[in-house]
Design a protein that fits this description.
alpha+beta; four-stranded antiparallel β-sheet; Oxoglu/Fe-dep_dioxygenase_dom; 183 residues; 10 strands; 23% helix; globular; IPNS-like_sf; Fe2OG dioxygenase domain-containing protein; Iron_ascorbate_oxido_reductase; single chain
Length: 183
């Protein structure tokens, strides 16, 4: 697991560097915010659910990090929201899925978008996946990389996580970045 996590950390840093560079910034721009000690790996198991083929393995959500790298098995169940429709992601054990997270969306001032996704349970087979989350420290300031036409106010990862937890407790779901809009 340590070797896998290290490889995912290196890949996340490389991909984030490319995305940051595409915005016209040095690839090191996120290194002040994110480092491997604040990132984590999660192992997911979704048991088979013969009761209902419409059962969520994971409810619709966006990731609260900068970048997520997902390795999944051949079972499938991951779906992305595209043009207001849920689209199944064809499972490929030899490929990785990379999702932009909420913090990268805020930092890029909406140039990159966090993707809403969910996991549907399989009726007959359990599903496994491994997700690597590129996260900042809780006290890192998440401001926009741009200085004009800002969309979001500055906030810390701690502020964001606390707001998400409050929303889930009060409303039953994550509200997300709209809580941090300037307008």
């Amino acid at each position: 697991m340590e070797v896998f996590a290290g490889a995912m950390a290196n890949l996340a840093e490389l991909l984030a560097g490319i995305l940051v560079n595409n915005l016209g910034y040095r690839k090191e721009a996120l290194q002040d915010i994110c480092d491997s000690s604040t990132c984590f790996l999660r192992l997911n198991r979704y048991p088979a659910c013969p009761i209902s083929p419409e059962m969520f393995g994971l409810v619709p959500h966006t990731d609260s990090d900068f970048l997520t790298i997902l390795s999944q098995d051949e079972v499938g169940g991951l779906q992305l929201l595209k043009d207001s429709k849920w689209v199944a992601v064809k499972p490929n054990q030899d490929a990785l899925i990379v999702n932009i997270g909420d913090l990268f969306q805020a930092w890029s001032n909406d140039v990159y978008k966090s993707v809403e996704h969910k996991v549907m349970a399989n009726e007959k087979r359990e599903r496994y996946s491994i997700a690597y989350f590129m996260c900042p420290s809780y006290d890192s300031l998440i401001g926009s990389c741009r200085s004009q036409s800002l969309i979001y106010r500055n906030f810390t990862f701690r502020d964001y996580r606390n707001q998400v937890q409050q929303d889930v407790q009060k409303l039953g779901h994550k509200v997300g970045l709209s809580r941090f809009l300037l307008r």
